[in-house]
Amino acid sequence: MSHHLVEVKDLEYVYPDGHRALEGVSFRITHGEAVGIVGANGAGKSTLLLHLIGALFPKVGSVRVGDLPVVKETLPQIRRSVGMVFQDPDDQLFMPTVGEDVAFGPLNQGLPRLEVEQRVVQALETVGALHLKDRPPYRLSGGEKRTIAIATVLAMAPDILVMDEPSAALDPASRRKLVTLLAGFKHTKIIASHDLDLILDLCERTIVLSKGRILADGPTLEIFSDEDLLKWSNLEKPFRMQGCPVCGQKL
Fold first, then answer.
1. Looking at residue 202, which CATH number applies to its domain?
2. pLDDT digits (tens, 9 = 90+) for 144-167
3. Whether the model pTM is above 0.85
C-alpha cells in the first residue's frame, strides 16, 4: 500500500514576501493513519497541506506520496491519490450545478461517462446530499457547500484525504454528521483544524506546528493532555477534556 504513504523531509518554504512559513518539517504517515495537524493561526498548517497536493513546492526538502516525489511532472498521479478539501468550499465549487461539480474531477481523470454518473450518485449519497444534485452551488448554505466540497473529493476515490478546517462554520448537527462521515473513510486522513474536539474524535495521532516548526508529534490524547505544550502553542484543551468551571468535573 505504498501509494497511501506520505513522507515529508526537511521541508522549508518561504513566501515571496520573505515570510518563512515552514522550517525543517519532517514526518511520515502510513496507510490508514488518521493524523491531525494543529497550531495557532500562522503556524503553517495550510501551507503544509498545499505542499501535499503540489499547489506549492518546497524551497528546501522534499515531499513524497507513495513512490513519487511531489513535483510538477508527477502532479496528475499525485492528484489521483490525494484529494483535498479546502478551507473555503467556494474554492472548489464553480460549475452550474452540484452534480456537475462532483463530476468534474472524475471526468478530468478520463473516466467513462457512465462510471462518472455512478460516482456522482455514490458520493452524494455518502454525504447525504443526493437531493442537491441539480441545485446551483451558490444557492447552498455554508454547511451544504462544505458537504458538497467533500463529495467532489470522494467522487475521485482518493487513497489519501486531506482536509483544511473541515468543521469551520458548521452548525452542531452538520458537525456531527461530518464526524460520522469522516470516521467511515478507512484510508489515510490528514486533517488540519482549530477544532481540537474534532481531532480528538477522528485522529489517533497529532502533529503540533508552531511558527513553521513541529513542536510535537505523537498520540493525540497525550498531546492534548500536555498543558505546557498547549500553552506554548497558543492552544487549549478540547472542550470535553476541560473541567466544568462550576463543579470541576470533566465535561
1. 3.40.50.300
2. 898 899 999 999 999 999 999 988
3. yes
